[in-house]
Amino acid sequence: MQLFCGKAIKVLAQSSVVKNLSVRRMCSKKPVLCEVICDKGIITLSRPERLNSMNDEMVEIIGDTLAEWKNKVSMVIIKGEGRAFCAGGDVVGLTRNGVDRCHEQTTFFKKEYRMNYLVGSFSAPYVALIDGIVMGGGVGASVHGPVRIATEKTLFAMPETAIGLFPDVGVSHVLARMPHHLGFYLGLTGHRLKGVDVVKAGIGTHFVDSQKMPQLYEGLVNLKDPASNLADFLKSNTKDISSEKFVLEPHLGLIDRCFSAPTVEEILVRLENDNSAFAVEALTSLRKMSPISMKITRKQIEMYRTKSLQECLLIDNRLARSAIDATVSKDFYEGVRAVLIDKDQNPRWDPPTLAAATDALVEEAFKKLPPIEEEQVKTMLEIVDDSRL
User: Fold this and answer.
1) Averaged pLDDT of the chain
2) How far apart are CA 89 and CA 37, in angstroms?
3) Which of 58, 54, 72, 44 is nearest to 129 (CA)?
4) Is 203 in a helix, a strand, or coil?
5) Angle between helices 291-304 and 264-274 (to 10 degrees)
6) Kind of pairing between the strands at 32-37 and 40-45
7) What would the pLDDT profile of 74-116 be if each residue is shown by its tens digit?
8) Exposed, middle or buried: residue 250 (CB in 10 Å: 0-12, 13-18, 19+)?
9) Cα 8 to the chain's mean position, in Å?
10) Which residues are catalytic?
11) For residue 385, what pLDDT is reported?
12) Lowest CB count within 10 Å: 44, 128, 142, 186, which one?
């Protein structure tokens, strides 16, 4: 690991030392750069040509690095190269070879959820600079840490129901705790939020103009004793957005009324009865989504209201296993095909309707993993008391 400190960072940025480092990174083709600067652990997602989407190598590197850095660095800073922080998991790569290679896909999700747990339980402040696109796996790599700094370029969404999946990486632990049933709305519709609205919704914690991000980053790297001084530093170096209005503020009452319904079918009925422009837009979105994914997502978010992050990630493992094994539905493969591979935007969902996505099918998706695998995941997530699971 390279060790740099102080304002020497600016000088070194132009030096042959750093240029050589860049050359070595390009030659090694590592999609993540991990280094220690001024006793801060810096993680840079370096796959800009794929919007830093997470693959197996990336989640393993980040997870192993966080485990190694525990009690050894004073703070972790994670950022992305290019116009995205991280646009999600590389689901195209996961589904390319179909159900026949589901063991490899299961391994990916286990590694990713381990990484999410390590983010949420890290021993020192964990700061995510979510400048640019942050979706799916990118949310999981940031939202469980205590500090997430957004900019006007930040674009957030959890669009999993559109590809036959569910809001995974423990994100539903956060969605479940949003007021006004906002998390149900975001999780089911995949609605996108931008800029200050990412902070207003609770996905981000602080806001800064993107042009000031390099200065903020340098200040974080040089910050003395982050455990004691981080809060004051952020207060002085981020923007007060308390006077700015949340874009969904006018619709929170409608969201609460409609998305508090006990079933997805009832959510649609309430939106139809409202018939406002916002309700019609929400209906249009929901009618495109995988029926079984919507039902799994609604149940998942409701369930996670009383679960710890560890417990949520264990259940996410069960749901992911169901999706990639296609034991309940092949919608994950079909959704990725239609939205991301062929891009015909015409998925053939199976089951095709909400009525056909029965409670029995939904319950099957939540079924426990095989005993040995279940215990492996519990050990990975350091779950001791499993009486609620």
Assistant:
1) 91
2) 28
3) 44
4) coil
5) 100
6) antiparallel
7) 999 999 999 999 999 989 988 887 776 566 677 899 999 999 9
8) exposed
9) 34
10) 89, 137, 160, 168
11) 81
12) 44
- Distance, in Å, from the CA atom of 64 to the CA atom of 228, rounded to the nearest integer, reads 26
Measured distance CA(330)–CA(37) in Å, rounded:
45
Mean pLDDT of 198-209: 98
Asked if 78 and 128 touch (Cβ cutoff 8 Å), the reply is yes
Strand partners, 34: 43
Give the rounded percent of residues in the chain with a pLDDT score beyond 70.
Answer: 91
DSSP strands (E only) in 108-246 = 126-130, 133-135, 147-150, 155-157, 193-194, 206-207
pLDDT of residue 95: 86
Q: What's the rounded Cα separation, in Å, for the pair 306 and 226?
A: 31
Give the N- to C-terminal CA distance of the chain in Å, as an integer: 40
17 pLDDT exceeds 60?
no
pLDDT at 384 (0 to 100):
86
> What pLDDT does 50 receive?
94
pLDDT at 337: 95
Q: Contact at 8 Å (CB) between 53 and 32?
A: no
CA of 141: how far to CAs of 132, 203, 231, 295, in Å? 14, 12, 21, 25
How many CA atoms lie less than 13 Å away from 130 in the CB half-sphere? 39
Residues in the chain: 389
What global pTM score does this model have? 0.92
Q: For the segment 362-386, what is each residue's pLDDT rounded down to a tens digit?
A: 999 999 999 999 999 999 999 988 7
Other Cβ atoms closer than 10 A to 121: 16
DSSP 32-87: EEEEEETTEEEEEE--GGGTT-B-HHHHHHHHHHHHHHTTT-SEEEEEESTTEEE-
Hey, what are 388's tokens?
């609620």
What tokens were used for 224? 């003395």
